[in-house]
Write a structure and sequence with these properties.
about 60 residues, alpha+beta, three-stranded antiparallel beta sheet, 1 helix, about 45% strand
């Protein structure tokens, strides 16, 4: 089974870009839970600032 996950949590309310440290931790947690990360793609705003990430994961089972 494959899933698409959108990650857009920011370090603070006024933050512009998503929290990369939290993204890496969530990817690590997903891999420990038996998911394989297929791809991570940055989604940008109209002005070219990274607004979120789209993650494609696949069940390792």
């Amino acid at each position: 089974m494959k899933k698409v996950v959108i990650f857009s949590k920011k370090k603070s309310f006024w933050g512009v870009e998503p929290d990369i440290d939290l993204l890496n931790k969530q990817i690590e947690d997903a891999e420990n839970d038996g998911w394989n990360v297929i791809s991570v793609t940055a989604n940008t705003s109209l002005f070219g600032v990274i607004a979120s990430y789209t993650i494609l994961i696949e069940s390792a089972k």
